[in-house]
Amino acid sequence: VQLQASGGGLVQAGDSLRLSCAISGRDFSDYVMGWFRQAPGKAREFVASIMWDIGSISYGDSAKGRFTISKDNAKNMVYLQMNNLKPEDTAVYYCAATPSGMFRYWGQGTQVTVSS
Known about the structure:
Elements: E1 2-6, E2 9-12, E3 17-24, E4 32-38, E5 45-51, E6 57-59, E7 67-72, E8 77-82, E9 91-98, E10 105-106, E11 110-115
Parallel strand pairs: 2-11
Antiparallel strand pairs: 1-3, 3-8, 4-5, 4-9, 5-6, 7-8, 9-10, 9-11
């Protein structure tokens, strides 16, 4: 499975941004797709995940109430809509996929920088 994240950029606090993840490769109909982020000097952090087949969603604490994960099965895309961005959301955002358990496949990351 190959993943290509895009959509990052430099925004101001309070702005919105939508990240996209293009998915290709083997059959991933029973996979879980996720978004993670890693800020400088910090550990990688879980943001959100969605099950490709039934659409069940989970959010990390930092994402609840401001971020929304979604998917487009026809386009093989996963999205992360981020609203009311804060400087502490600054990080490299990665999309990832797994058939089960720990996330096994990772995209290259897209930088999100939020200025105050």
